[in-house]
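Progress against Task 2.4 (sequence-to-structure conversion) is shown through the following example record, which the project officer requested during the mid-term review.
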Amino acid sequence: MGTSKQLESLVELMARLRSPEGCPWDREQTFSSLGPMLIEEAYELLDAVEAGDWNELRDELGDMLFQLVFYAQLGAESGRFTIWDSIGRVHEKMVRRHPHVFGEEKVESTAEVLSNWEAIKAAERSAGAAQASAPASMLDGVSRRLPALLEAHQLTTKAARVGFDWPAVDQILEKLEEEVAELRAELRAHEVDQRRVDEEVGDILFVVANLARRVGTEPETGLRAANRKFRRRFGHIERRMAERGGEWREVTLATLDQFWEEAKRLERESPAVEGESQA
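Structure tokens generated for the chain above:
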């Protein structure tokens, strides 16, 4: 069983790596240079979750923790904060945002918990804005550096928690059809305006992110599953092409579509890949 001593040991290890007697590579790292590695570790962790590989997930959680301790070490060296400051702040924040657990407030549902959560965050933002003499938005907590599809999901999730949402899924589908029609009109214009086309495609993706949220699908996860499915099926096409021994330019699209349908049929006839649709 782990103890706080193990966390202290990891913090000490990180300080050693960053010391003059430590590792040259670790000493060269900055807040900015660690960014890509943090993102990579996050996606590797998600891969382990989606694969249901618990041994890998255990290891990836360790790798992610190491990245967080690395950031905290840079904060300590600059005199800005320590890992213990970060732990203290998040502990305080979680207690404050769970009055139904640590206080006297009563809730009846998850929806009520989320509504209270947003109200507490709004109060925190207002207090911070008053000190900074700047306006606060409930959307400020959504990072602009998120993958765009995930950002759209997070933005609309927050808006929906205060009632700014379509009443029914059918209305989102109607909006999607409307946006597709607008894109079709732009593409049929005598002179295609690429800027307008880009805007209409973006609108479609934003509505799709809303639709995914409303039906309970995390869009980034859904798209990643679709990407893996495409890889599998295209791999089947490549194998069939290798069997034929011909050149790609010699094969018709109809033949490639036939191979694609073969891949779909083989998937339907075999056990489903865990966590992925066979559609």
